[in-house]
């Protein structure tokens, strides 16, 4: 998100690993043929794929602590820092909005339709949009309040969201519930966003919806608290790692206990999910920090550091490329049209692998292909900052 003044190689590595995993799971060759760990949980529960987005938001929080701590200590720079954070957040939102509307506008132009119709049905929220919103709010909280207050804010967010979702009767339903289409978050999304502007795969709820953005901010605040701890100069490295492992394990255990009453659920971004995913992220960074920054084993890090230093760039390009290439339509003998990227997959992958392995190999190829571009940028010291 920003260039930390005190940079951790392990943080870049962990961010890069997370983004590479995000590209992998978002780009299978065929959505109907995916290995179970590379799919999201149907509703309640958590697969490895469900950990990727909260890991990234958690890492954003750690990065905020490293990048903005000097500004936090100097009240004269607070306004300037917050304005920069707001600008960056707005840019992230607009990048996500562009990805959502790009294909709709091009289709409208090619079909001689109305561009205005694209705006009438575009999804307003999404992954980059959520990152932008969470980044703005979390940055302002970090700059304006003490670290102790940040911790209290995290606790309040988790408790308030739990109370709203489990005790407030849903209008039109009459009782609180956590089902896909009848929970409070879904009702708010339909009421404010309307079904025309929610996730196209559901139309009745949005996994990056309005109310669930609240606990997503909690995930980022969790990361901020870890970043504050990692920056401390009065604590030695073994103690940092030990406390980070301890905190991570404690959060995972609390998340699993809370799961018994408020299920771990990515789409709802439940409070138990915040603790569970944040705890695992803490354990992951502790391990990376100990191996890479403390013990000095760095040779293996380059491929993921390459991804980590241009994380938003590669995520945006990975979302844009299939939209662009599939605009190129190839006409079959029977008159049907197929997008260029789809035709390439059907020609070069499906004849040589089983359906599920073809889908996986395609996703791996996608990750490796972007690695070539990112490695070139890395060697040329090209870092595109939002």
Automatic annotation (TrEMBL):
GO terms for molecular function: acyltransferase activity. The chain crosses the membrane at residues 12-31, 51-69, 90-110, 122-143, 150-170, 209-229, 241-261, 273-292, 304-325, 359-378. It comes from the Bacteria. Keywords: Acyltransferase, Membrane, Transferase, Transmembrane, Transmembrane helix. This is DUF5009 domain-containing protein.
């Amino acid at each position: 998100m920003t260039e930390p003044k005190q940079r951790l190689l392990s943080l870049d590595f962990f961010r890069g690993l997370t983004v590479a995993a995000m590209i992998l799971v978002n780009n299978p060759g065929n959505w109907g043929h995916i290995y179970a760990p590379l799919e999201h949980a149907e509703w309640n529960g958590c697969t490895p794929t469900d950990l990727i987005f909260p890991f990234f938001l958690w890492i954003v929080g750690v990065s905020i602590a490293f990048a903005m701590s000097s500004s936090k200590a100097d009240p004269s720079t607070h306004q300037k820092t917050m304005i920069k954070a707001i600008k960056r957040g707005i840019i992230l939102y607009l990048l996500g909005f562009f990805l959502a509307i790009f294909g709709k506008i091009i289709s409208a132009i090619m079909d001689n339709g109305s561009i205005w119709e694209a705006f009438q049905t575009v999804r307003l929220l999404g992954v980059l949009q959520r990152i932008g919103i969470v980044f703005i709010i979390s940055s302002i909280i970090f700059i304006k309040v003490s670290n102790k207050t940040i911790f209290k804010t995290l606790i309040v967010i988790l408790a308030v969201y739990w109370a709203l979702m489990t005790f407030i009767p849903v209008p039109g339903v009459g009782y609180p519930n956590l089902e896909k289409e009848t929970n409070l978050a879904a009702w708010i999304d339909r009421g404010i966003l309307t079904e025309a502007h929610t996730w196209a795969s559901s139309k009745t709820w949005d996994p990056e919806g309005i109310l669930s953005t609240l606990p997503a901010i909690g995930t980022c605040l969790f990361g901020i608290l870890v970043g504050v701890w990692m920056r401390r100069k009065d604590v030695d490295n073994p103690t940092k790692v030990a406390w980070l492992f301890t905190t991570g394990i404690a959060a995972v255990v609390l998340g699993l206990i809370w799961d018994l009453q408020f299920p771990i659920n990515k789409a709802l971004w439940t409070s138990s999910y915040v603790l569970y995913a944040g705890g695992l992220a803490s354990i992951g960074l502790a391990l990376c920090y100990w191996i890479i920054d403390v013990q000095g084993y760095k040779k293996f890090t380059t491929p993921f550091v390459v991804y980590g230093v241009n994380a938003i760039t590669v995520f945006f390009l990975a979302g844009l490329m299939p939209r662009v290439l599939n605009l190129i339509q190839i006409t079959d003998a029977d008159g049907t049209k197929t997008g260029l990227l789809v035709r390439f997959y059907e020609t070069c992958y499906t004849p040589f692998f089983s359906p599920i392995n073809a889908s996986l190999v395609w996703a791996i190829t996608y990750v490796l292909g972007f690695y070539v571009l990112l490695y070139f940028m890395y060697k040329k010291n090209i870092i595109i900052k939002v």
